[in-house]
Amino acid sequence: MDKKRWRDLEPRQRRAIVIGGAVQATLALGAWYDLSHRPRELVNGPKAMWALVIAINFIGPIVYFRFGRHLQEPAEPGAGDE
């Protein structure tokens, strides 16, 4: 079976590839931005590991947003002991 080249694809297939790539890039860039601006204490595990996980197509950024972040800041020791 011969490999298809870009020019051999139908316009609908080309659009799907471009849209899929844009979605992937947006997810990854958003996740890397969030990771780089999030304090270490608010990340579940090492930041370097999450940076690599985010590079996995589609699923990596989704996994990071679901499992890699603490959504709330941890309570300060002694808070509410009054």
Automatic annotation (TrEMBL):
Bilayer-spanning residue ranges: 16-33, 48-67
Principal cellular location given in the protein's record: membrane
This protein's UniProt keywords: Cell membrane, Membrane, Transmembrane, Transmembrane helix
Domain Cardiolipin synthase N-terminal: 27-69
Domain of life: Bacteria
Alphabetical list of Pfam families matching this protein: PLDc_N
InterPro entries, alphabetized: CLS_N
Localisation per UniProt entry: Cell membrane
Gene Ontology cellular component terms for the protein in this record: plasma membrane
Record has Transmembrane helix as a keyword: yes
Membrane topology: Multi-pass membrane protein
Name of the protein this chain belongs to: Phospholipase D-like protein
